[in-house]
Amino acid sequence: MNISTKNIYCISGLGADEKAFDRLNVSGYSLHHLKWIPPLTNENLSSYASRMLNQVQETSPIILGLSFGGMIAIEMAKHIAIEKLILISTVKTYLEIPKWMRIAGTLRLHKLLPIKANRLTQRADDRRMGIETIEEKIFVDQYRKNADQKYVDWAVDQIINWKNTWVPSNVFHIHGEHDRMFPLKNIHPDFIIKHGTHIMILNKADQISACIEQILLA
Fold first, then answer.
1. Under a CB-based contact definition with an 8 Å cutoff, are residues 63 and 38 in contact?
2. pTM > 0.85
3. CATH code of the domain in which 152 resides
């Protein structure tokens, strides 16, 4: 007997693509990656999330958001009913964003010093990302190489100026114990992945998959 699979709509982190989810294995579910679209001039995150929803072909979907994708997923939940919202390595409200990021947004420091990859910033970014192996370094560097700078600048502006205070009742948050991008001390997750970093979806996929399956059974 054929048992039809259900869909999980996945939104990757800043500049990443569907490869971020390649190592997840969720029994009985098919993972569908929502592709990034170019932001409109002066577009805010709510409007962008609404346009991203054009790729979702069902009502009350299950949506999974990774890092920046988690923020977009929460904004999507303001526009449509969502069965379950699964967040990985992200934040739910602006209060979970590190204070230094919020200060930078308030002072518009990212406008004075536009985000541009170089050897110095990459070292700091690698540490915040939690890169530990050559494979992980190659994986992240590939996204840096291919990232559209205008999109990155827009996304960074949206992240550090996000003012969200609303958390939907059907949200489930999976977070890494050693996430330096969004430190655990600021977060109130439902699941904590031991030794997990910001890129734990690459090296803790089995544990994360198990958490997702538990969420889907709830």
1. no
2. yes
3. 3.40.50.1820
